[in-house]
Automatic annotation (TrEMBL):
The keyword Transmembrane applies. This is Glycine zipper-like domain-containing protein. InterPro entries: Gly_zipper-like_dom. Keywords: Membrane, Transmembrane, Transmembrane helix. Pfam families: Gly_zipper.
């Protein structure tokens, strides 16, 4: 029963990571005049951020 909040929290980490990554990607896309490429880069960055937060949260217990 206490595993349920952990799963919800890990999903929130990935959501926040992808959201931040998309914002960064939009800025990169505007800078290089290619929004689609910037969004792709942003999704990759966001997935990495989310995975890092998720891994860090799993160490707590």
């Amino acid at each position: 029963m206490d595993r349920e909040p952990d799963r919800n929290r890990s999903g929130q980490y990935m959501g926040w990571g992808v959201g931040i990554g998309l914002a960064i990607g939009a800025g990169i896309g505007a800078a290089i005049d290619n929004i689609a490429l910037g969004m792709g880069i942003g999704i990759a960055i966001g997935a990495g951020i989310g995975a890092a937060f998720q891994a860090r949260g799993d160490d707590d217990g």
